[in-house]
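Reviewer 2 asked us to include a model.

Predict the structure of this chain.
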Amino acid sequence: MKKEMQRETLPDFSMGIRGHMKITYQAYTVGVLLLVLGMASSVRAQLECPLPEGVTPLAPPPVTAQQVEDGSASLTDFALAVRDIFVSEPGITSLKELAYVGCLLRQEGGPWRAGNIYVTRQVPSPRIFIHAKDQSLSGRQLKPEIYAGILHALGIDPAVLASAEETRAAFTEAATGTGALFDLPDIPGASGYAVPLISGASGHPVIVSVGFDLDVSHLAPVELEHIEPPVTAAEVVDRDSLKAFVTAAGEYYIELVASGDANAVSNARVVFRDENGPWVHGSVYIAITERVSRFIHLHGGFPNRFELRQSGTVRHIVTGELVAEQVYRAAESDPEGGFVEYYFDDPDDEFDRLEVPKVGYARVFTARLPRPDGSILTTDYIVNSGFYPSVEDVELRGRLENPGAGSFQSGVGALWGWVCDAELVEFQIETAQGEVEWYPAMYGMERLDTQDACGDTNNGFVLLANWNRFGAGRHTVTTFVNRIVLDQAAVQVTTLGEGAEEEFLRGAVGECVVEGFPYQDETTTLEWQQESQNFVITDVQSE
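Predicted model (structure tokens):
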């Protein structure tokens, strides 16, 4: 992706190019800081749960989780406040509303979550759908004895769950009440308040619990049956294998949705997040988003960060563009989806180095969900994944043209070259003394001579430098594109002295004549020019 060339007034070199380089680098640092702040702002916006269009803001509860945590309010009152979210007219009837409320419920420090007081939600089975404290546990199942204890507290006979009709009838009757406290004294931590509901969004029975600090010890062992896709996550190495991987995941997921089995759909979270299964390998995983609401149903890489929230807050770390919108545009660009490149957290890279962009593929899949009333709910899902190519697989077309390898440098000069596509072009200068410094280049200059190689012309990059500040000696200049080495040159720098006072020589006057240059019958006059810290040609005479 191209950057617009930065335009700025050239500095007054009487102030010294070192000062300019500091200003340029500081400006770059400020830009990065602003981008980081923007990302932080985006994260805050996500945590603060931006209100989707057409959704009514949720009023604060009359009793907060913090009040229950510190003992100034009862768990029952808080549970009824949570219940009112789902049963008040018109209730939650859309995925946008569910995404918004789900985000609020998971907001640490918000009115709905404090310490061990938070919300969990289950489908009409032991399977967890929402875990406000640790969404990575969603899709797992409660131990049978815990789920049976919750049902008994609600007056529901577990035996009726074998029949869909009896399950719905039992939950419908129980939902007319206000829920109940449950406590299984033989199981540490297995206590709280449960409320049975009929979901306004899906029409399915659910259980909402509060005050149950549900952890791994309360979950049944995982027993998974995987389908074996034609291409597994471990086998994704290029665009073709990535497309096949995403296609298999999308077809598998919409088949589950179309089955009407909410338990199976919820179980898909465990299946798609299983690091020992075919759907996760390092930085390759599946994400599934409802197309209209931008509600993320599943995120195989960062469930706590993204799952069951509305997407659209994480930005490209270089351009600032919303990553999700790039992915969705690719998905909607063609019936068979499309590819996209972007920068994003690599769970396999603890340093998140800016080395190579992630290559993503996204596609729209349509599921037809049978509702309890016999109607069909048609829903589009965007399924996507991506992989990080190795640095060796990245082809950079371009070159560093100045300085040339083995050249002599002095005074104020420019470093320049071209590259076809770049997010970030930088120069690394390693001095003869072993010091290493980085400098961002301006990128996007018009270079008509790159049309054939690049297909466009805005490919030039340039950096002003005062060689004096590096001191005399042999220095190494390396050009990086997206932190990948493009080119390198060793140069010999000559200065007029050592020390900070010599970085920009002032008040000097000098002139010399070079005979027989550029041709034998010509004489060239050179004069010292303070602004460029070098000698420049002022006259050429023929003999």
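Residues 1-47, 349-355 have pLDDT under 50 and may be disordered. The longest strand covers residues 358-370. We have added this to the supplementary material.
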